[in-house]
Design a protein that fits this description.
- The structure is a single chain.
- The chain is an alpha+beta fold and 350 residues long.
- The chain folds into two domains: 159 residues, no CATH class; 157 residues, Glutaredoxin (3-Layer(aba) Sandwich), CATH 3.40.30.10.
- The protein is built from 14 helices and seven strands.
- The strands form two sheets. The protein has a five-stranded mixed sheet.
- α7 links the parallel β4 and β5.
- The longest helix has 34 residues.
Amino acid sequence: MNSIARALWMFTLVCLPAVGQVTPATSNPSPTPSTVVAEVDGRTLTNIDLEQKESGSLLQARYQYYMSQRKALDQLVDEELLSVEAGRQHLTVDELLQKKVYKDIKDPTEDQLQVYYEGMESNEPYPAVRDRVLEHIRQLRRDKARAAYSKELRSQANLRILLSPPVASVNVEGAFVKGSKNAPVQLVEFADYECPYCQQVNPLIQKLEEEYGDKLSVAYKDFPLPMHHRSEKAAEAARCAGEQGKYWEYHDVLYYSHSLDVNDLKKHAQVLKLDEDRFAKCLDGGTQAEAVKKDLEEGKKLGLSGTPSFFVNGHFFHGSVDYSTLKEMVDQQLPARPAAQAVAQTTSTK
């Protein structure tokens, strides 16, 4: 087995037990839906009662646990990659770091140390803390260099992260969906048109659609935040445009223009050559307000508190994400790539 295959085999051993679930370490069997978790004045509460009534808070707790797992896994992956590379070069990991990673790191100048000290909250004189400041800056630079080297090793490795975020059921009935109905992966986004992070992620989702084609469908759910006073009406406007078959065109205009006042919403309809009277009647009459509220209430039940929030085949993650994160979440839901399948076949014969 070559070094990359061995690394992938190690990652698979680590990741597979946690795929699609968050399970605490325990000797007890996993609870079934009918497992009794409490008794209140003779009435039993089961695990399914807990899941149904407290699903939102449980999803957030499981996501926090997943994030802790992911941080630990990323560290483990980086350590394994360093170990594999050190072995390839017939070095120890420490020798590899000193020879390849830390060799060009320079110490800060005395002036730089003085400037750093002046920014510290310390009652000790500079001579008393100088050596500690120097070692702290050295460590910061070593950590930065090691992170960059690990990133380079990751880009060269045939790496597939299998640890998945927690799962929740999301209702897309009535949502606007773009892409093939038979797509193996569906990304559902809860977002707010006034949210700057949602504005930043919109072109990334478009890039994702271009890359995956019929393998991916995208559904949009409205989650106007209370501090964004224009976002609810903007969500209604997009749905009003949807009545005339131009939901996604209008949706994109809202994110690109950042113009969300009511007069602007009507100008967008004019630019897209919608029936302006029909659009104005829909918007002014609040025809789509209930649909927006329905999305909002669903998001609250799921425990969402910010935007953007995503569900990829039900797997939840949120926040200001980059393209690599979106791509990884989609890739997890697709069949294993040929190289990963070859590794699985290799390890199965060992």
